[in-house]
Design brief:
The structure is a single chain. A hairpin with a 2-residue loop joins strand 2 and strand 3. Helices cover 41% and strands 22% of the residues. It holds the Pfam family EAL. This is Diguanylate phosphodiesterase.
Length: 330
Amino acid sequence: MPCKSCLVLELQFDIQLKGSQNLSMVPTVVNHFQRRNLMIKVEGDHLIIHESGVREFLDFSRHYMDLENIYFRFEDKDWKPIIEIESILDMQWIDEVIRRKAVVSYSQPIVNANEEIYAYEVLSRFTREDGSLIFPNEIFTAARSRGRLYALDRLCRMAAVSYSAILKKKTFINFIPTSIYSPEFCLQSTVKLANQLRIDPSQFVFEVVESDQVDDIEHLKTILNYYKEKGFQYALDDVGAGYSTLEMLADLQPQYMKLDIKYVQGVSTDYEKQKVAQLFLEKAFEINAIPLAEGIESREDFEWLKQSGYQLFQGYLFGKPSIVPKRKIK
């Protein structure tokens, strides 16, 4: 049974009223809502209303109240001016995407120095009802704005685990650390599904995305330790930005470290990128992590990275993400 944050329930908004004009209108607002059979609850200078009544309230407040002194929040997020609530309402479509489980898993090969497929990274793509694709940045922007990141991350993770059954190789699966409250609770469904599919846990490498936004390292360590206890492996991406010290990296003990695309493309001719790539490599070897370069598109960059000591490689040079797994590079 997923936690409440993973369920797509109707949003409930806390509306804060300031100023005598707005407070004097509370009985009128309550009467207006009750006549329309819309849920409303009064708690001092606050109104609690469901999303189904928000536009009604917004229309009413525009005509009869002082908008500049009305604020809202939901799920204990920060208070915002009421006029910003429309952007959240406009992104309600993300709820239906999650309810329909409208995610399709793609795979991109990860190769070794001999250009043999070592693993695949599973990437999530999302579809509208007409079958057209939705860009990932649209999806995650909408999910963040409506507090649906937890539900979306779980949906993608479960779909990727299911898809891995046809890959039959090591599988890299992205996850967002901030979308997990408690690993023992939030990740138990992932572990259960892997067991049901009879996939060896060592086949999975859970990859931390948005590394540069990880503020709570202790929480991340708790998640990674849980994965480790269950037999899974894990990778860190964008190491230069998110994990600046060797001590921190050694503490996290990742099995894989991914060099970001911005240091990969053009590295064969760019001295500054070469310096970053070499430093990254030294960090990886010091903590016994396998270095992986992603975003490779040119043969020259691949050869330079390979000669420098990188062990794994990913990018369009070896294959684009596809629904049907690519089985051979050459």
